[in-house]
Amino acid sequence: MGGHGYSQGRLNLPFVGISTFAKSPYVADWDAIDADVAVMGAPFDFGTQWRSGARFGPRAVRDASTLFSFGHAGAYDHEDDATYLDASVRMVDIGDADIIHTKTEESHDNIALGVRKMLAAGALPVVIGGDHSINIPCITAFKDDCAKHGPIHIVQIDAHLDFVDERHGVTAGHGNPMRRAIEKDYVSGMTQLGIRNVSSTAKEGYDDARSRGSDILSVRQVRALGTEAVLDRIPTGARVYVTIDIDAFCPSIASGTGTPSHGGFLYYDVLEILQGLAQRHDIAGIDLVEVAPAYDPTESTQILAAQVLMNFIGFIFHARTSR
Fold first, then answer.
1. Integer CA distances (angstroms), 109 to 38, 99, 112, 134, 135, in order
2. In Å, what is the CA distance from 143 to each residue of 96, 146, 149, 241, 281?
3. pLDDT for the residue numbered 6
4. Residue 283 — φ and ψ, nearest 5°?
5. Backbone angles phi and psi of 84, in degrees to 5
6. Cis peptide before 114 (omega within 30 of 0)
7. For the purposes of burial, counting CB atoms within 10 Å of the CB of 86, is it exposed (0-12), middle (13-18) or buried (19 or more)?
8. Quick one: how many helices (H) and strands (E) in the chain?
9. To the nearest 10°, the Cα dihedral for 258, 262, 265, 267?
10. How far apart are CA 203 and CA 67, in angstroms?
11. pLDDT for residue 72
12. CA quadruple 282, 31, 69, 15: dihedral positive or negative?
């Protein structure tokens, strides 16, 4: 009867089993979430202005996350002498928000519902897009949470400012999310990092963002300042919501996105910012968007996305226990 080795547990290789995020338990009942962190997919890409395909981002990032999720009790980092994401961090995957083709408002409402359910359960919401318009329902869902716990400061890591108010009647596309967010009275401010080249926003949008208190830094400006100086610009004690557009990274390492922009961040540029945020601030929520896997046959983009999320979640909960 032997040969399977089940008496010693399963090796659980990355290509074995169902691809939930980090091979975490799947929770289909959104009223039964009992976890420290919950992951939801938002496979919506009707907000794109050029190349679509980010609807397949959640599936690809989940699959990539299995690479980092087998055979280990957490992830030991020898540089930090710390083990991140050990068994003490309870993580679940609640599947995807239902998307109704051609129906932006209804699809966004379904995404917001999932975020509200995660927040009501006391879990850190992590949402995988989808195009960047999915940030709009994510931030909308924070209204009641902020009434209880205080406002949020948004840190955006992105190539594009995404601060368009309205264009030809479009107010909820992937060029609008930061403009929609700053209108909320529970969003206290924004730090926008990595913005460069021809953007999604005209000059008046930049002027508008700055007039509303936004701090905008390009990749070169971030590097010139250094990580600690950039972090010093974020208000002390702020609750932070982090939105990461994969096109913040240089397309040399993340080509799988609809609007690539050369001159982007490299891995450690972003990782050190995220680690510093986790150490200095309460992280209220995360979304990672615009992974469009069809444009990257090497699959490196979704592996990068999964690795960034896994590390960031690990930093957050390690920092919480350290405090």
1. 18, 10, 5, 10, 12
2. 21, 5, 10, 13, 20
3. 47
4. -90, 120
5. -100, 150
6. no
7. middle
8. 10, 10
9. 70
10. 42
11. 60
12. negative
For the stretch 229-265, pLDDT in tens is 999 999 999 999 999 999 999 999 999 999 999 999 9
Q: Under a CB-based contact definition with an 8 Å cutoff, are residues 157 and 243 in contact?
A: yes
11 membership: H or E segment, kind and range: none
Q: How many C-alpha atoms does 16 have within 13 Å on its Cβ side?
A: 7
- Map out the domains of the chain as residue ranges: 18-322
Asked if 74 and 86 count as a contact pair (C-beta separation under 8 A), the reply is yes
d(CA 28, CA 227): 39
DSSP states of 130-178? SSGGGHHHHHHTTHHHHHHH--EEEEEE-SS------BTTB-SSTTSHH
Tokens matching residue 316: 């957050």
Q: Tell me what pLDDT residue 178 has.
A: 98
Beta partners for residue 167, in sequence order: 170
Q: What size, in residues, is the chain?
A: 323
CA dihedral 319, 91, 39, 256 (to 10 degrees): 70
For the chain, list residues with pLDDT below 50: 1-6
Axis-axis angle for helices 57-65, 300-322 (nearest 10): 70
Contact 57, 292 (CB under 8 A): yes
Residue 73's pLDDT is 58
The secondary element (H helix, E strand) that includes residue 56 is: none
- Which amino acid, residue 187? V
Q: What are phi and psi of 82, to 5 degrees?
A: -145, 145
Which CATH number fits the domain 18-322, given the four candidates 3.40.800.10, 3.30.450.20, 3.40.50.800, 2.170.150.20?
3.40.800.10
Q: How far apart are CA 109 and CA 118, in angstroms?
A: 14
Q: Are 33 and 117 in contact (CB under 8 A)?
A: yes
